[in-house]
Amino acid sequence: MNRFVILSGCSGGGKSTLLAELQRRGFRTVPEPGRRIVKAEQATAGGALPWVNLAEFARRAIALAMADRADLPDKSGWTFFDRSLVDAAAALWQATGDASALDLCRRHRYHRTVFLTPPWPEIYVMNGERRHALAGALAEYDRLVDLYPRLGYTIVVLPKVSAAERADFVLARIGAEDAV
């Protein structure tokens, strides 16, 4: 059974907060590649930022998502990913029309159920790492809602509840009772 679980969906919908709750409970977690790239690029005045060069940003996110998967020391326990290779491939496809990265997504699978955070305007905040307005987040969400099923995944939209309740929901849905 594949125990690599994706948390994806609308920017600003609470993915990172949910990931932190799962980590607090003892589960292995992988932070969002995009945020790590943005921090590194901002620290070095680099140009691979989504609002500067989306294509280069997406290429780096693909490489980082692949490295994250390869670097996991033990693949037997549950691992929760804040976004995934699929999200990065979707960004590259949007930026360039190049769908070749989708082949990587077909070869490097995650758990069949993907959990999406829905648009949640009441908690959406723009910041130094998230510079797109809610309209951009909604367009991204729509692309992911379309793409994940096309790649054979089942989408489950998370309820708009606390991070603890969301974690309970996710764990019950995949049948995970305990951490690694």
Automatic annotation (TrEMBL):
Using the record's annotation, list all stretches that form the NadR/Ttd14 AAA domain.
5-166
Checking SUPFAM superfamilies in the record gives:
P-loop containing nucleoside triphosphate hydrolases (SSF52540)
Signal peptide span per the entry?
none
**InterPro entries annotated for this entry?**
NadR/Ttd14_AAA_dom (IPR038727), P-loop_NTPase (IPR027417)
Q: Name one Pfam family in it.
A: AAA_28
Please list every transmembrane segment annotated in the UniProt record, as residue ranges: none
Q: What is this protein called?
A: AAA family ATPase
Q: Which organism is it from?
A: Rhizobium straminoryzae
